[in-house]
Amino acid sequence: MSILQNAIDSIQIGIEDYENGDDRRNVSAVRNVAAGTLLLYKEKLCRLSPPYATELLIRQDIRPTQDQNGTIIFEGKGKKTVDVQAIKDRFNSLKVAVDWKRFDEVNALRNDLEHYYTSKSPDAIREIIAKSFLLIRDFIVNELDANPRDLLGEDCWSSLLTVNEVYSAEESDCKASIGKVDWRYDSVRESLDYLRCPECHSSLINAVDSTETYPNINLHCKSCNCQFSFDEVVERCIDENLSGEAHISIKDGGESPYAECPECERSTFIFSEGCCVACGYEMEYQNCEICEEPLTLEEQWNEGTCSYCQHKWAKIMEE
User: Fold this and answer.
1) What's the domain count of the chain?
2) Which domain-ending residue is among 150, 174, 198?
3) Residues ≥6 apart with Cβ < 8 Å to 162
4) pTM recorded for the entire structure
5) How many CA atoms lie within 13 A of 133 on its CB side?
6) Cα gap 241→317, rounded to integer Å
7) Over the stretch 148-178, which tens digit does the pLDDT of each residue have?
8) Are residues 154 and 303 in the same domain?
9) What is the domain range of residue 90?
């Protein structure tokens, strides 16, 4: 069976699992749709492979060799095929277009689902399928030069289209509701893409009253009817939004854009805001009163002196 047929079968089975109505098959639905999407990507790599080795570019280990005429050719070693990062790298060098930001979002949602899934999570499943639909549709049209309705079949295509349309309409309503709230801080507003229900992990969240004062904004999950306050989820939203940037910055020798607040002990002190976006704490001491060097967040407990001057003072007191 060809890679393309495997891709089609996986996506079709995933949609059948989703439409079955049995909660136990929802996770299976997501896994199959995700697997099918990756197989579509591998099909493209096969099409770009040389005629003498049509599956060359899906092999993880590719080595140069010579044919009987002394011409340099490449061959794949072993049975391992490319992982997601290798597909990204090869697509990038071959100028194959994929919305990797959306793919990473769907992949992260799928991984979260493995940990957070409950019978109360139908809209979390719907979100993943709806966002996968856009990846699948665009890739089939733009990179495989095919009609997605013809390739996937009328039933599968109609189901994907319906899921996407319904989810997109509800998502639009929720975003309009959230957009009316005064979120006070730019960093918080940017983190709202990661706003999710603490009970079922759905992103279909609306504001109960857009005039409420931050951070005590009451929120409602349209999926499971959970009522919660933004103050309960602000730390997770900030962490989801900034953890990647923090990792890259620290790896390159820089500083994290956020840290634990000395006041509320949540990881919500945003340096660009100059305060904690959860409790409003601002650094009381800006410069060391002895050497006048700028103080860090960790040095706030020294009551106006930097760690170096504090150490020197301690040494003097010991003597």
Assistant:
1) 2
2) 174
3) none
4) 0.75
5) 22
6) 45
7) 999 999 999 999 999 999 889 999 999 999 9
8) no
9) 3-174
